[in-house]
């Protein structure tokens, strides 16, 4: 498909001419607001401003103005972004650099100018239903031994990040939802919602996944583990509920009771990684206030949360998303390492996240030296749980 | 090998960029000065590399434009002559916080936000923080001579500098103030002979590249509060401000901002549409007090009593609906986001004698009437002596770019004619600076001595 007019970028034309180039999206530090640095890519991949929010706005404007830029070079920069949205969160005048970056990726994808690595991810999702090119069959291994309810009232979509990278989280989620009292079922066929494709700008391919998900899912309320999946479903007009919300509500109203296990006591102090898709407004989930829900859950469990240096809304990305981990693994490892290195300083004994993508990424780079849990997995590992029927 | 390759070879891998996509974000600052097109951007990580880059640039006769965050309003970082952009963001270390000497020594790429965060555990702060401080670099503020919060107490950025290390165009380094004697370090600006520190403050990178900065430390104020005073006319306000400065009542005032009649009406009628416009003051001074609580209470009472002599009255409603929000949870977030919230904003900044305030505000009104295609505003910042004035022109960059450049270019001469002085000169004021014959001739001689090939920021300050 050709699009000589860059119509996707043109939708942001007003913003491209409004940006004040103040550099907040590059290097803001603002203690009163909990901003302690902004861009993981600038820190972990390249410090060139062409990899920043400001750089993406400048690139988009130059393309609209007809400047002859080498699209392969543009693509190398545009596909080295974690899409975390921190640049957008810190912008003092509300510019949308993260949205422009997504449009820029889509323009490049439309012109067959996406990097080979991104195309490989697209093909993996379309053929194997996951961006890691893992065998499709592994996408349901998390549920081995679990029996979906024959007459379900809740459909669990664990997402491919949980299914492939945090299977213990997917499994614990299904079990916990059952304890709470839901009649839970899930697909026995691995299915990707299309979020990895949208993040890379493969809009049409993502649409194919949306359609497949719609036809392959019964008309039941959906519970979703992954923030990326939830955001994708919302954007596609398919409402769903976060497992995190259901857990929080059940703990709040007494449908779920949890007591620390004597044989596997929880760590006294944990750090929390909120996950950019949960915490930054750009992704459309800010109304859930997931950072608060997660902290509330941990407080109810009697676990102390160590003070993080940055506010969730402005935390620097761990490098898991946007294709970074697959396209630039060394850079993504540096980003993860920066997160893990900070945990000792706040006295945390484990890291908890409600994002399977982030938890899976950090688990890999923690190398067993530091426990990293999804929230459901954490509860299952350290708490005896009881629901209304126990 | 090209000169770009020659200079790139001086940097570690991955810190020099020639591709057009990589140089786009280094073409301009926040101003209406036309962008330039750098041929190369380099980001050194230490001062010796800066020296080597400058020596090579002089040898190869390549223009060098030094850049921090690029958030200034006068085009000083715009590489009009092409050449090389020297991005100092990689020199971002705080080298020493010496609470005994009362000095912090840092590299130029440190942002004000990072510096304030580092000083806070020591109960310390610095004197001047610009409104772009979360991302603006200290090096940029020194080179462009910024102002901001702290101006009523400390005047401007330059007055807070205890000494500098500067890389000269030939790649050699000098230290100024007491640190010129290396064993002594930075503790006294005027220790030896003339003030060489001042030579590089506000020089916009034309005479050297600042690689180390020593700033005076000050205790964090224990108590802060805001208050506003309203005046019936501009002359009364100007007379009050002059007396306020002469009586030295500003030791516990961290920020003072003046709002003209249109701004006052806009804020107050926006909040309370039923108010009688005729009852509103024509000028409001917002004050951000900071210090020991009893000293703040004492000074505030004195200031309000002095204001009463000039017909000034407290304006709690203006404070409530507008001014105190500006610093609700921030020490330095006064204006920038507001200026650029709805559109781009051209800013001409000038210093002015306090008694020139009425002429300055009247002039702003004349531009407003003469060029109704733009939205105009003015802003004044109270200093220990004199005022800083800003004329703000809000424009649409896509459709009004050429028009705004022409109109704003005309403003600088008219400001000079009423007694204003160029401030944050860059390229915005270059034409007016060039008319200051003796000043410019002396500046050019110094430039020739320090930068004989003329590679440092050609075009800035009319040089």
* Low-pLDDT stretches of chain B: none
Q: What's the overall average pLDDT of chain B, rounded?
A: 94
Task: Provide the gyration radius of chain B in Å.
Answer: 22 Å
Oligomer classification: heterodimer
Distance between the termini of chain A: 57 Å
- Note poorly predicted spans of chain A: none
Our count of helices of chain A gives 21
- Distinct helical segment count of chain B: 16
Give the percentage of residues in beta strands of chain B: 15-25%
* Beta-strand residue fraction of chain A: 5-15%
Strand order of the largest sheet of chain B: 15-12-14-13-17-18-16-19
CA radius of gyration of chain A is 21 Å
Number of strands of chain A: 12
Strand order of the largest sheet of chain A: 4-3-5-6
Helicity of chain A, in percent? Answer: 40-55%
The greatest interface here is:
A-B, 39 and 46 residues
Helix content of chain B: 25-40%
Counting helices, strands and paired strands, the structural category of chain B is: alpha+beta
Overall shape of chain B: globular
Molecular structure report:
- The complex is a heterodimer of chains A (390) and B (463).
- Chain A is of the alpha/beta class and 390 residues long.
- Chain A is globular and about 65 Å long.
- With 463 residues, chain B is an alpha+beta fold.
- Helix content of chain B is 33%, strand content 21%.
- The longest helix of chain B is centred in the last third of the chain and has 21 residues.
- The model of chain B has no long low-confidence stretch (mean pLDDT 94).
- At the A-B interface, helix 2, helix 3, strand 1, strand 2 and helix 5 of A face helix 2, helix 4 and helix 12 of B.
